[in-house]
Write a structure and sequence with these properties.
six-stranded mixed sheet; 14 helices; about 575 residues; alpha+beta; about 20% strand; about 30% helix; Rossmann fold
């Protein structure tokens, strides 16, 4: 108790910060180091944790802590808590745009940054709840002219703009309670719906009335002129959620085809299912499009790195007696890369594979009778996916949802066939099976009848070297690339990553995972890392309390690790 009293007595105040800024005004930029520390603003405590070395460097890291004034209903369970934190991050970002003047001076001077949430509701480190305290983590470009401190401008940012941002974004009375409640209840219901998928015997659910098309390829907001989704009558499932009842199309485990003419919405439906692993904000249109949390999009990826991976279920008997039980390459072909992506997904625990023929290698997906006659099996090392999808489900319980528009070979193995007609799905399963019987394929199934052995590899910690110069350097570039030391991990083909903050967290997780690389399998390492995050928080991945991270899945962590070209495994 005495220690807390002394702490409160000697904490610097807002006026102390003002005086320090006056004192260092016009001095060299490094004098900003003097303002590091904690300052009591009465309504909140400002922590200036790290001051940038110059105005062109990464902005300074700040935090503010205040009492959590939100009512019990807003923090009642984990779903609501995550949604509350997400909502507050959005409000803080809006108020930055409203109250902050923006850049003034050299480099990043004057700018205030917080992670910008998109259409998805993600658990982030930008806003955290710590017992009865709310903590917001953000960055500020401390202003300068040239490399001289602009003390008056810094005072305007920290003493005027920041309190206004806090006042209008972090207190219940400043917020629209209806919007806040809808944000929280929507997230709670989406979580509940996803949690019920197994009990409902579904791998995905698309709500009636959902709006699937996006405004454009670079604008993830809903297309206002898009048609609301309507399930085929025989596939309608009704689900009671904590705050509402929803009905829509349920996709059962097994092999589901999405077919139809060009431009009728096949890939749009699959894309919505891909992103159904996330919850979406109210008004997005996909609020109740939910997918099994371990569903993974698979595609071809020419040129990717593969390290000692068993791809023999799909590729065998390569020329030159190349070992496909422990296959390695620095420049995979389309079919080889897609085989590797499937096997790595299975190794990491994927339960459903999402595939679009437009981004697949044709010879990986199908091989028809005529080609079998021209190139006999003894000269073709690839066993196409059409011959492995059924044992993949029956032996391993891994479902497939496949967009096909150019071949009917998959009709024979499909459990369900959805045909998109002017953006509306029709259940043509019976018709597809009728066609398959009326026009039987002459081709022979290829490869072993069983699926084959799964990979079991143990990553070597020393191969994850992030050293660049005299320090470890890990940096995310958007959602498509991660610098790891001197290596660049290309993630453009990992299509379910949606936020730069996820890549920041994955970079930290790669460093963190090294402590478990003691002979354990990759699958065991992934489970341990995710368990540590679940029992603690994303903060376990880094010693610094930064607001730049967001939750990710073990499947994307595995994808990043597998694309690290320095990776070595036992």
């Amino acid at each position: 108790m005495a220690e807390n009293f002394l702490y409160l007595t000697f904490m610097k105040t807002r006026e102390d910060l003002h005086q320090q800024l006056r004192r260092i005004d016009g001095k060299g930029y490094k004098a900003y180091k003097d303002i590091q520390g904690q300052f009591d603003f009465e309504d909140f405590v400002l922590h200036i944790d790290y001051v940038q070395g110059d105005p062109f460097a990464s902005p300074s890291r700040l935090r503010l802590r205040l009492d959590n004034h939100f009512p019990e209903w807003a923090c009642r369970n984990r779903s609501r808590e995550v949604a509350l934190r997400d909502f507050l991050a959005r409000q803080f970002a809006r108020c930055i745009r409203r109250f902050a003047q923006g850049q003034r001076g050299s480099g990043k001077s004057g700018a205030i940054f917080i992670c910008q949430p998109g259409q998805e509701i993600l658990e982030r480190t930008a806003v955290v709840l710590d017992k009865d305290k709310l903590e917001v983590r953000f960055q500020v470009g401390l202003p300068a002219f040239g490399r001289r401190i602009a003390g008056q401008q810094a005072a305007a940012i920290l003493l005027e703009e920041l309190p206004a941002i806090v006042k209008h974004s972090l207190f219940p009375e400043a917020l629209d309670e209806y919007r806040l409640r809808e944000h929280l209840l929507t997230n709670e219901d989406a979580d509940a719906l996803r949690d019920q998928l197994d009990a409902l015997n579904l791998v995905a659910f698309v709500a009636n009335g959902a709006l699937l098309p996006r405004a454009s390829g670079i604008d993830p907001r809903p297309l206002e002129s898009g048609l609301p989704f309507k399930s085929p009558d025989n596939m309608v499932v009704e689900v009671q959620l904590p705050n509402r009842k929803v009905s829509g199309m349920g996709i059962a485990p097994g092999i589901t085809l999405i077919t139809g003419g060009g431009y009728h919405g096949k890939s749009t439906l699959l894309r919505a299912i891909e992103l159904g692993i996330y919850n979406h904000i109210p008004g997005d249109g996909r609020e109740f499009v939910v997918t099994h949390p371990n569903a993974l999009k698979i595609r071809a990826e020419d040129g990717r790195f593969v390290e000692k991976l068993n791809i023999s279920p799909f590729i065998n008997n390569l020329p030159g007696a190349i070992d496909t039980l422990r296959f390695s390459t620095r420049n995979a072909s389309g079919s080889t890369s897609q085989a590797a992506n499937v096997m790595e997904a299975l190794e990491a625990g994927a339960r459903a594979l999402l595939i679009d023929e437009d981004t697949s290698a044709t010879n990986f997906m199908i091989r028809d009778h005529r080609m079998q006659q021209l190139v006999p099996k003894e000269r073709e090392p690839i066993t196409p996916f059409v011959d492995k999808a059924r044992p993949l489900y029956e032996e391993l319980g891994v479902s497939s949802i496949i967009v096909v528009g150019g071949s009917g070979l998959y009709f024979d193995i499909a459990d369900s066939v959805l045909c998109m007609v002017e953006y509306e799905p029709q259940d043509l399963t019976a018709r597809a099976h009728e066609i398959a019987r009326a026009y039987p394929e002459d081709r022979s199934a290829e490869g072993e009848k069983s699926f084959g052995a799964l990979p079991r590899r143990a990553p070597i910690a020393e191969s994850l070297d992030a050293q660049k110069g005299n320090r470890e350097k890990v940096r995310a570039f958007g959602t498509r690339s991660l610098q790891f030391g001197t290596e660049e991990i290309g993630l453009s083909a990992v299509e379910q990553l949606v936020d730069n903050s996820q890549l920041n967290a994955i970079g930290d997780a790669l460093l963190y995972a090294r402590k478990y690389m003691d002979g354990r399998s990759l699958a065991e390492i992934l489970e341990q890392v995710m368990a540590d995050i679940e029992s603690g928080s994303l903060d376990v991945l880094s010693r610094r309390k930064e607001g730049h991270s967001a939750v990710f899945r073990k499947l994307e962590l595995a994808a990043a690790l597998n694309r690290l070209r320095s990776l070595r495994v036992e």
